[in-house]
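Help needed: design a sequence for this.
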């Protein structure tokens, strides 16, 4: 939902629109003890990284504030220390890395018109280099681990696909397609060995999902590079369709990964996401069902809620 859909600056707002505006305002706030300028970009869920992803999924563009948030995220993802750590986690020929962090950071850069930033190019190059033989990514450091992780593969697909769409990067596109095929080989939520559901939460709906994978996020991810009319996606699409409530909307059905503001400990949000979650999931589910029955050109790349600014050179 763009600013015109959220009714920013208007005097007549529905409760859902007003709640989305409240969430966007809180996520953009960089000041105070819990402001994103005061904490590490990765701090769950208060850092600039997590806030930026949620803002973009809400269709919000905070102008200079989202640019500043993105700069903090890209600086963190390409820092010397992070580069050095990545070189130390190659085990049995596979880099064991939480690649959804790089993937979502790259996705944010592309969404904000910053795909030409040299830091974005570096991230895209590393993601391609870190891809596992089965098409995905994984941070499991056990030497015997040789199967990619759903949680660590959705972010790279989204980032690489968006990056290719902005700058034209065949290697990034090919890597995203290979990874999407990894999801399709699993029918987006089943074991490729015995067909069982990988985890109970994977077939539930969540927002924000943060780094967690679920079937709706998987469909949105695959749609960036593959046709959702594939037979391999049909079962997952039906699960989303059947999750629709009697009033025509969708709501979160799984574990809530965030804790309300004011709580102590980790995973504390800066704003109550409950109201926005149902609206976002409903829009995402409707877009998936449209894509599943529409020509490829009408799929989710880009989504109807995308907000973009022209690319700007970086000095």
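Sure. Designed sequence:
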């Amino acid at each position: 939902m763009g600013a015109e859909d959220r009714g920013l600056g208007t005097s007549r707002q529905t409760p859902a629109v007003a709640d989305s505006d409240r969430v966007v305002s809180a996520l953009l706030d960089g000041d105070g003890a819990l402001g994103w300028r005061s904490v590490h970009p990765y701090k769950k869920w208060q850092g600039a990284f997590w806030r930026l992803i949620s803002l973009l999924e809400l269709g919000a563009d905070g102008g200079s504030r989202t640019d500043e948030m993105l700069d903090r995220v890209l600086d963190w993802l390409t820092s010397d220390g992070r580069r050095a750590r990545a070189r130390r986690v190659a085990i049995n020929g596979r880099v064991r890395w939480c690649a959804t962090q790089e993937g979502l950071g790259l996705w944010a850069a592309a969404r904000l018109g910053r795909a030409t930033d040299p830091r974005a190019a570096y991230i895209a190059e590393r993601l391609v280099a870190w891809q596992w033989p089965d098409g995905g990514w994984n941070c499991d450091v056990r030497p015997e681990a040789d199967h990619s992780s759903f949680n660590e593969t959705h972010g790279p697909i989204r980032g690489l696909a968006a990056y290719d769409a902005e700058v034209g990067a065949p290697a990034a596109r090919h890597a995203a397609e290979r990874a999407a095929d990894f999801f399709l080989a699993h029918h987006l939520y089943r074991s490729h060995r015995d067909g069982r559901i990988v985890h109970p939460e994977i077939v539930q709906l969540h927002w924000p999902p943060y780094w967690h994978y679920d079937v709706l996020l998987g469909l949105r991810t695959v749609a960036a590079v593959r046709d959702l009319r594939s037979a391999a996606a049909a079962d997952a699409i039906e699960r989303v369709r059947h999750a629709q409530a009697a009033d025509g909307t969708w709501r979160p059905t799984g574990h809530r990964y965030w804790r309300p503001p004011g709580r102590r400990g980790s995973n504390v949000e800066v704003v109550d996401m409950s109201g926005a979650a149902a609206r976002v999931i409903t829009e995402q589910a409707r877009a998936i069902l449209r894509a599943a029955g529409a020509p490829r050109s009408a799929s989710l790349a880009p989504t109807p809620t995308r907000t973009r600014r022209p690319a700007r050179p970086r000095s």
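The CA atoms of residues 223 and 300 lie 6 Å apart.
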